[in-house]
Amino acid sequence: MITASDVDAFRAGDEHAVRTIYREYGRLVFVVANRVLSNRALAEEATQQTFLQAWKAAKSFEAGRELGPWLATIARRAAIDVQRREARRAHDDLDSVKAGDSSLSVAGPNIDQTYTVWQVREAIDTLNPQDRELVRLQHLEGYTHTQISEMLGVPIGTVKSRSFRIHKLLAAKLGHLREDAVS
Amino acid sequence: MASDSTVAHYLEDDGEPIDLNIDEREEMESLRALLRDTSLWQEPSGSLEDSVVAAIAGGHRIDTEFFAPPVPHAGGAVQPIASPSALVSPPAPYTSGPPTNVVSIDSRRLRYGARPASRWGNFAAGLVVAAVIVGGVLIVKHFPNSAQGTTSALSGQGTLADATGKVTVFTTNSGVRIELDAIGLPRLDHDDFYEAWLKSADETKLVPVGTFHTGAKVTLWAGVSLGDYPTFTVTREHAAGPDDVAQESSGDVVLKADIGG
Question: What is the CATH number of domain A126-183?
Answer without folding.
Answer: 1.10.10.10
